[in-house]
Amino acid sequence: MTPVIIEGRIRNKKLVLPYVYKVLTELGIHRFRRKCIVIQFVTECDSGAAGYTYDHCEDITYVEIARAVDGVNNGFLYMMKVLAHELVHVKQYWRKELCGDGGWTWKGKDAKNYSYYNQPWEKEAYGREDKLFNECFDFDARFTN
Length: 145
Hints:
Blueprint: E1 4-7, H1 13-27, E2 36-42, E3 51-55, E4 60-66, E5 68-69, E6 72-73, H2 76-94, E7 98-99, E8 105-106, E9 109-110, H3 120-136, H4 139-144
Parallel strand pairs: 1-2, 2-4
Antiparallel strand pairs: 3-4, 5-6, 7-8, 8-9
Helix pairs in contact: 1-2, 2-3
């Protein structure tokens, strides 16, 4: 099983790890034993986004999830949806679909001239986040614990 480390303050923290493993399984990257994901719940991401993933072709991939954007708090469920989006990026890095070292490439081709919403990696992440969230998050556990 892929090692996952969760850092920072987050409500319902005990629900996060099982959710992450379900998403990783759905993405087919749950057995990468030599890779590690560090999920950091931060006050705000330096990028100003709700989430950010960075991987420098090393064994550790960092995912930041913001508790707030521009001073407005994000709810727990919204953060879980953002986490699903960011885990799609983890899959893209680990499967070598997306690489950001020395300029962006997507599936081996130069990808630096895309506008944000036309970036193929963002289209995939936005396209999969709702389904991953709805299928993998244990809504019942949230209300029974």
